[in-house]
Design goal:
UDP N-Acetylglucosamine Acyltransferase, domain 1, alpha/beta, Spore Coat Polysaccharide Biosynthesis Protein SpsA, Chain A, 396 residues, 39 strands
Length: 396
C-alpha cells in the first residue's frame, strides 16, 4: 500500500516560525514534524510514499531526498497554489491506485496510530480522536459504526470527535474531489461530506499518539510528548561536576561545562556549548550549534539551531527560531497569557514568548508572557517588550 503525505502548506497561524520554513519542517525534539510521519509509516512496512509539497518545497526535498536514509522510497508532486488539502491530494492522483493511506504532514503521529488504522481492515476509514477544542478541526458525528456527518470548524458544539487527517481511501475519491473543486470547495472534508451519502466511512479510534500544532504555543505540547519517547544517545564532552537526571540526549561535539544541571527529558543537538553553571529543566529541546552562557535557566522550551543565549538569562515556555541571539540578562518568563494571533485573542494557560529566526536582543531585555516577536527583529538593551512585533521591527 502506498501513502500520500500532504506537506504543501505554510502554516500561517504558526508565523513567524514559518516565515522561511514550512510547518512540516519545524523541529520537535530536534526532528522535523514530517519525519515522525515518515517513521510511523516505515514502522508499519509502508515504504512507498508520495509527498505533496508546495511552500518552501526545497527545504523538504533536500532533507528527505529519495527517502532511502529513512527506510522509504519517496517521490514528490507539487501543489503550485495552496488551495486546500483536498486539492493537494488531487495532485497525487496519478501516483496511487486502489487503496492508499493519506496523512497530514504537519501532525505528529506514531506507529501505533497507523497500525490501528491498517488493522481496522476497512477502506474508506478515518482515524478519529476526542478533542477538548473541536472547533479547530473537522468534527464528525457517528451513527451505527459509521461517520454520519462532517462539519468543518463548527462555531457551535456538534461533537467532540474530530478527524485527524489520517485516512485509508480508495481512488474513486478523486472523482468526488474533482466535483468539489468545480464547486469551489477545496477541502478534503468537503469531499467526505459528498461521499457520505453513497459510501460509509468507518471511524477508527486509537490509543496511539496524534498531536497537532495549530498555534505556536502548541509546539511546546508536541515537543513534550515527543521527548517522552525519543531515543537517547549521549555523546560530546561532559565535564566533571555536571549533574544529569533523567533521559538526556547529547549530540556529537557538544560540550556541557562544569556546574551545569540538566533534568530530562531533554534533547541537545550537535556542536553546542553549554555552561558553566547552566540549568536546563524538562521538556526542552536545543538544536545544533547553540551557545548557552553561564547562570542561564531554561525551562520547557524549544531553541532551534544556531541560537546564542548570553549569561544570566531566564527562558520559560518559549520557542526561539533559528539563529536568535541575545546578550546577557534576557528575561522571558512563562505564565498565563492572552495571546494575539491575527485578529484573534487566546487565553493560554502557560506561555513565555515566541521568537522568529535571526532576531537579536541587547542586554537586560524583558519580554512579557504571550508575546510574539517577528523574524529579524532587533531589540536594544534595556527594552521591555509588551506587545507583538512584526518581522524586522526595530526597538530602540
Amino acid at each position: 500500500m502506498k501513502a500520500v503525505i500532504l506537506a504543501a502548506g505554510e502554516g500561517m497561524r504558526l508565523r513567524p516560525l514559518t516565515t522561511s520554513e514550512p510547518k512540516v519542517m519545524i523541529p520537535i525534539a530536534n526532528r522535523p514534524i514530517l519525519e515522525y510521519v515518515v517513521d510511523a509509516l516505515v514502522k508499519n512496512d509502508v515504504h512507498d510514499i508520495v509527498m505533496v509539497v508546495g511552500y518552501r518545497k526545497e527545504r523538504i526535498m533536500s532533507y528527505f531526498q529519495d527517502g532511502k536514509k529513512f527506510g522509504a522510497k519517496i517521490e514528490y508532486v507539487v501543489q503550485e497554489k495552496q488551495l486546500g488539502n483536498g486539492h493537494a491530494l488531487s495532485c497525487a492522483r496519478d501516483r496511487v491506485s486502489g487503496d492508499f493511506l493519506t496523512l497530514a504532514g504537519d501532525n505528529i503521529v506514531d506507529a501505533r496510530a497507523v497500525d490501528d488504522l491498517l488493522r481496522s481492515g476497512t477502506c474508506p476509514s478515518a482515524l478519529v480522536v476526542e478533542s477538548e477544542n473541536p472547533s479547530k478541526y473537522g468534527v464528525v458525528t457517528i451513527e451505527k459504526g459509521s461517520i454520519r456527518s462532517v462539519v468543518e470548524k463548527p462555531v457551535d458544539l456538534v461533537s467532540n470527535i474530530i478527524l485527524t487527517g489520517l485516512f485509508c481511501l480508495k481512488d474513486p475519491i478523486f472523482e468526488v474531489i474533482d466535483q468539489c473543486i468545480e464547486d469551489g470547495k477545496y477541502g478534503l472534508s468537503d469531499a467526505f461530506r459528498a461521499t457520505l451519502g453513497r459510501t460509509g466511512i468507518k471511524p477508527v479510534f486509537s490509543d496511539g499518539l496524534w498531536i497537532d500544532a495549530v498555534y505556536p504555543w502548541d509546539l511546546l505540547e508536541l515537543n513534550s510528548a515527543a521527548l517522552e519517547n525519543a531515543p537517547v544517545r549521549t555523546a560530546g564532552k561532559i565535564e566533571k561536576q555536571v549533574t544529569i537526571a533523567g533521559p538526556v540526549g547529547i549530540g556529537e561535539e557538544t560540550v556541557i561545562r562544569a556546574g551545569t544541571t540538566i533534568y530530562g527529558p531533554v534533547m541537545i543537538g550537535e556542536g553546542c556549548d553549554i555552561g558553566p553553571n547552566v540549568t536546563i529543566f524538562p521538556s526542552t529541546s536545543i538544536g545544533d550549534n547553540v551557545t548557552i552562557e553561564p547562570y542561564t535557566v531554561i525551562k520547557n522550551s524549544i531553541l532551534m539551531s544556531n541560537c546564542s543565549i548570553a549569561a544570566h538569562s531566564y527562558l520559560s515556555h518559549c520557542v526561539f527560531g533559528y539563529g536568535v541571539k541575545s546578550k546577557s540578562h534576557l528575561m522571558a518568563t512563562g505564565s498565563e497569557a492572552f495571546v494575539n494571533v491575527g485578529d484573534e485573542f487566546f487565553k493560554v494557560p502557560h506561555m513565555g514568548c515566541i521568537v522568529g529566526e535571526d532576531a537579536e536582543f541587547g542586554a537586560g531585555v524583558v519580554i512579557e508572557p504571550g508575546t510574539i516577536i517577528g523574524a529579524g527583529c532587533k531589540v536594544s538593551s534595556g527594552s521591555k517588550i509588551m506587545r507583538n512585533l512584526p518581522n524586522k521591527a526595530l526597538v530602540m
